[in-house]
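Progress note, sequence design subtask.
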């Protein structure tokens, strides 16, 4: 039980720091963002996890256990429009990769897609659109959800 308490305490701390805000809110929470793992049905079977948020940047950690190829992320502030993108880089199977999305608008929703081209393929395929929100100003209100595994093995 002590181990579980330490885990949740650490997780809550990480979530609070990642949210970069504070306070409480009585307003209706926004719709949940699209899931961060790239959607099934695309050629990419790995995952994308966003971290290290600031008011103007976020780091995307991209990983695939068994796929290699070229990858980039495109983003924008309107759904379906991605005018900014990272450089195209090589993803090697079983090697995590970090892509920094920079020059973001503070305290704003951003929409993104991961583009992946298998090694030896001719074209990139896009993931489903996903969404994140850059860090809010200190003292502003926000809502977040905490989910835990009630049956850890």
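Output:
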């Amino acid at each position: 039980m002590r181990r579980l308490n330490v885990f949740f305490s650490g997780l809550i701390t990480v979530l609070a720091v990642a949210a970069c805000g504070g306070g409480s809110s009585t307003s209706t929470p926004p719709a949940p963002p699209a899931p961060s793992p790239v959607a099934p049905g695309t050629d990419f079977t790995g995952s994308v996890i966003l971290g290290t948020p600031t008011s103007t940047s976020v780091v995307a950690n991209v990983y695939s256990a068994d796929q290699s190829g070229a990858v980039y992320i495109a983003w924008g502030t309107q759904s379906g429009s991605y005018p900014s993108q990272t450089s195209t880089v090589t993803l090697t199977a079983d090697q995590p990769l970090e892509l920094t999305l920079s020059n973001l608008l503070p305290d704003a929703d951003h929409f993104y897609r991961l583009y992946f081209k298998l090694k030896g393929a001719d074209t990139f395929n896009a993931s489903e659109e996903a969404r994140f929100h850059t860090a809010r100003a200190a003292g502003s209100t926000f809502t977040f959800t905490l989910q835990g595994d009630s049956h850890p093995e």
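The first strand starts at residue 47 and ends at 51. Work on this subtask will continue into the next period as scheduled.
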